[in-house]
Amino acid sequence: MRPSSVPAPGSTKGRLLVATPPLADPNFDRTVIYMLEHTDDGAVGVVINRPLHEPFPHELQPWERFLTEPTTIFHGGPVEETALIALARLEG
User: Fold this and answer.
1) Which of 11, 34, 47, 58 would be a feasible disulfide site paired with 76, CB 3.0-4.6 Å?
2) Considering only CA atoms, which of 3, 7, 1 is closest in space to residue 39?
3) CA 28 distance to own-chain centroid
C-alpha cells in the first residue's frame, strides 16, 4: 500500500480544477478548486471562486494579524462545513 504522503498516479495536487457545467452536484458546479492533497486515500482542496461577502468572523480574530488584503473567506463544501482551511505563503 502506498503511504498517504505520496501522490497517487495522476495526482492533481497543486493544480486548479475547473468544473464546467452541467455538474449534477451543486456544491461543485462551476467551481475552481486548488488541490492541496490528492493520494490514493483521498483528496483535499479549497474553492477559490465563491467568496462569502460576509464580515470577518469573530472566531478568527486571533488570526487577523497574519492576514493580508484581500481578507476573503470562500465557501466550499459539502465536507466539513464547520471547518476552515487557510492558505499562506511563508517567506524565509
Assistant:
1) 47
2) 7
3) 12
Alpha-carbon distance of 67 to 46, in angstroms, equals 17
Which residues neighbour 66 within 8 Å (Cβ) at sequence distance 6 or greater?
88
Report which of 23, 41, 55, 68 is spatially closest to residue 32, judged by C-alpha positions: 23
Cα separations (Å) of 47 from 55, 58, 81?
A: 18, 22, 12
DSSP E strand stretches across the chain: 16-18, 32-39, 42-47
User: How many residues in the chain?
Assistant: 92
d(CA 41, CA 12): 13
Q: What is the largest CA-CA distance in the chain?
A: 45
pLDDT computed for residue 32 by the predictor: 92
Q: pLDDT tens for residues 39-83?
A: 989 888 888 899 888 887 888 888 888 888 777 888 876 677 777
- Asked if 29 contacts 23 with a C-beta cutoff of 8 angstroms, the reply is yes
